Amino acid sequence: MDKQNSSRRDFIKKSLIGAAAFTIVPRFVLGKGYLAPSDHLTKGVIGVGSMGRGHFGYAGTKTVAICDVDTRHLALAQKALGGGIKEHHDFRDLIQNTEVDIVHIATPPHWHGLMALEAARSGKDIWCEKPMTRTIGEGKKVKEAVAQHGNIFRLNTWFRFDSNFYGMNVPVKKIKKVVDTGMLGWPLKVTISKHTGFDWKFYWVGKENLPVQQAPKELDYEMWLGPAPYKPYSDHRVHTTFRGYWDYDGGGLGDMGQHYLDPVQYFLGKDNESPIKIEVDAPQQHSDAVGTWRKITYTYADGCQIILDGEGTEVGKAYIEGPKGKLFRGFKSDIPDLERKLAQYPEPAAQMTDFVEAVRTREKFALNEENGYYSCTLVNLGLAALRLNRTLHFDSDKQEFVNDEAANRLINQPMRGPWTM
């Protein structure tokens, strides 16, 4: 199956490049499950809770299959789509559905790695919600599988290429342009705080001593848990509030970290690099329930720093501070005539920001399995330091912690059988 899908995708790529003059490629030429470039690409969505249902209507795609372990979610999805959509209970059946071109993964993060890996091996293109994976090791395996099988991968956080960026109120491209000019100097310190426009959502915390409850009949709780350790059912453990438990996510940092950190990685030019030191200031964390933290500081080999200010203690700090200047919330700066000076410099390099076009042309998407892996690793490095409640040292080249067995065990965490990557 891998060989067949790979050969078919190679054929599609060569056909589209070599026959660019044609406006329509017949479906029988492309093979079952592949639409002509003039038509919509088909999509299967795994996880059709509120997040999954919010992604049905992307231009250029048509949802033809849905999957969920909660029958209520499936019913709501059918209603939203007008009915008649193929339903799956097991995500593997959706991935093997030959009518599906793109697999959209909108489940809790503890499923992201397994599902993305299965989709990659099955020759599907992948649209995955953030964070890319719950662990560093899962991210490595997904990155390697996508490279091996030639899939187009998109991670669904868009701020590096689209929309105004939270409290900065300008697109990230403009911030990158300032950094690239060198007007702020080097190294730089970036502070992500409520004072610079970023909310860490500390309401995503877990509860200790959860009551044991009966799982509702519409939910297959065993399948919902999947690779996560078995814990007795409790309402607060699933559906939205799962973010407060280490087995499935990482609280406010797991929820918002890749939204906030991926653009920083991009404008600092760190798309292929990880920090070498991660410091944490936080209360001791519970073994099951995610708590809050005061500050997490990442330091790169060249001295650049990213500071996550959890409790808003960094009052009056610049969003970006360098030896030559500062950039504050709302794109204000202490550099005189910044806008006029900025206009004299070239724009940052163009990016492929249309996922449908990326699928059709086989051009790598702007936020993909490679740079997405590194920004997700930023999140997971912070979570590792938080769980262990101490400073960690990381080897950016080897992608492992330095002389730290406990931290390295968090890179590849065991999965509950029969699930494995």
Automatic annotation (TrEMBL):
Keywords, alphabetical: Oxidoreductase
Annotated ranges, domain Gfo/Idh/MocA-like oxidoreductase N-terminal: 44-155
4Fe-4S is among the record's keywords: no
Keyword DNA-binding: no
InterPro entries, per database record: Gfo/Idh/MocA-like_OxRdtase_N, Gfo/Idh/MocA_oxidrdct_glycsds, Gfo/Idh/MocA_OxRdtase_bact_C, NAD(P)-bd_dom_sf
Positions of the Gfo/Idh/MocA-like oxidoreductase bacterial type C-terminal domain: 168-420
Top-rank taxon: Bacteria
Pfam families: GFO_IDH_MocA, GFO_IDH_MocA_C2
Coiled-coil annotated spans: none
The protein's name in its UniProt record: Gfo/Idh/MocA family oxidoreductase
